[in-house]
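Quick one: structure for this chain?
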Amino acid sequence: MALPMWADDPGTETVKPREYRVWLTPTQAHPIDGVRYDQVPRYPLRREEPAALSADRWAWKIQRTPGVAGRRGGCVVHVWDCEEAPQEAEELDVLAALEVLRRPGAVACGECGADVALGPLA
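Got it. Here's what it folds into:
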């Protein structure tokens, strides 16, 4: 069942209609007199692919830096698609990335904007 709903659009500072789907049990749903239901799907809807582009994803990668002159090495936190981020590194969520930034010697990359995104949270 699709119901009209309203959603804020922060980009344009307006309110737009949005479709909202729910599944009902047979006891909750009953036909309305005078309405045709021959076009209503009777199968589960397929999950839609995420609408966000891959560039809109928020994931983080860690680059380990070697220690110099007997000092301990550190870490650099990168946005997942940063050119400096190691390709083979595991992608982390924001909480894991913030945990890494709390370690001594860890910094956020300034080239990919990780410092801007994570700086206020760290």
